[in-house]
Design goal:
Elements (H helix, E strand, L loop, with lengths): L6 E4 L5 E13 L10 E3 L11 E4 L11 E8 L2 E4 L12 E14 L7 E7 L3 E17 L7 E7 L2 E5 L18 E5 L2 E2 L3 E9 L2 E4 L10 E4 L3 E9 L10 H6 L4 E8 L6 E17 L7 E8 L12 E6 L6
Antiparallel strand pairs: 1-8, 2-7, 3-6, 4-5, 4-7, 5-6, 7-21, 8-9, 9-10, 9-11, 9-14, 12-13, 12-18, 14-17, 15-16, 17-20, 18-19, 19-20, 19-21
């Protein structure tokens, strides 16, 4: 499905947590709250003010955090939240005042969020695709005068024609560019690398039933396949740092971390693959040019250790709400 996306609305949240920089005010929940709650009761409102952002702390373990941030309206020891909670939180969970920057930790799960995607046709009519899930997601960061680029391939359940399209909203942000990228592979900073591509395939399967609908009744993620390529300036076949051919030949496992950093705003996007293996190594040899190597890799999920995921992303910016 190829769409010109005018707006995307989330019907469910992905697995992520949001934490902020500690500010003013610290207390605990005076009673547990359920996902979807719009108010919380705290043990003490001392140090908190209306309009402040608070972080409701972690209720979980492992790579997925359930911390989340909300802007509050204070009335005694009751805080009204500007958006419903995504997760449930136990009594006595920490509630602290926080400020920017905020850290978003996005981890893989067995389910995917459902999205509503709208294709606006000149603000006259629009096509609204409901029940969409992301099948494939690609990140490409070429060198040169190019921004970092993402592509999402979606599957939808149904489509409707809207005679009153949703108003188009555009957020102007400075794009990340190649000069703001760093790549660490097998614990080595690779300053010789360029043109990285990372692809996440959720392996969506469409299931049709006798439900009276033309579209699929279920769109189910059945696998997570993460792979990619990057180019390097060739210098050695077997060097401890740059000997990628030997590393591929031996089937050596290692991590890959790719980070984009805005030097002005301090915003960052980091993609972490805790366990990859190199599966292809190809040299591009040209007269009167440096020798380049193209390296393909496959990611897998470690069975031991603290990084129990195939791929994880961390975003640091001034947005306090969950994506």
């Amino acid at each position: 499905m190829e769409l010109l996306v005018a707006s995307i609305g989330a019907d469910a949240q992905p697995s992520l947590g949001v934490t902020g920089t500690v500010g003013t005010g610290s207390t605990t929940l005076n009673g547990g709250v359920s996902a979807g709650a719009t108010t919380i009761t705290v043990a003490s409102a001392s140090g908190f003010t209306t309009g402040q952002v608070v972080q409701i702390d972690v209720n979980g373990s492992g790579p997925t955090t359930t911390a989340e941030c909300r802007k509050i309206t204070v009335s005694g020891t009751t805080f009204t939240l500007d958006q419903p909670l995504t997760y449930a939180h136990l009594t006595a969970a920490a509630v602290v005042g926080v400020v920017a920057p905020y850290t978003h930790t996005i981890s893989q799960t067995n389910t995917l969020p459902s999205l509503t995607v709208e294709k606006n046709l000149g603000s006259f009519q629009s096509l609204q695709f409901a029940g969409c899930r992301v099948n494939k997601f690609d990140l490409k960061v070429p060198v040169g005068n190019n921004p970092a680029d993402i592509t999402a391939d979606l599957m939808g359940q149904s489509v409707a024609i809207l005679t009153s399209p949703t108003t188009v909203s555009i957020t102007n942000e400075v794009p990340f560019v190649f000069a703001e990228a760093t790549l660490t592979a097998f614990s080595n900073a690779r300053y010789d690398a360029q043109n990285i591509s990372i692809s996440v395939d959720n392996g969506l399967k469409e299931t049709y039933t006798y439900s009276g609908n033309h579209g699929p009744s279920f769109i189910t993620p059945v696998t997570v396949h993460t792979s990619g390529t990057f180019d390097v300036v060739w210098s050695s076949l077997n060097d401890a740092t740059y000997g990628d051919f030997t590393r591929m030949q031996n089937g050596t496992l290692g991590s890959l971390v790719f980070t984009l950093v805005h030097p002005s705003s301090a915003g960052t996007v980091t993609v972490t693959l805790p366990q990859i293996v190199l599966n292809k190594f190809a040299n591009d040899v040209k007269m009167e040019d440096v020798i380049m190597s193209t390296i393909s890799f496959e990611a897998s999920r470690p069975l031991t250790g603290s990084s129990q995921f195939t791929v994880q992303a961390t975003v640091i910016n001034n947005v306090y709400l969950n994506y």
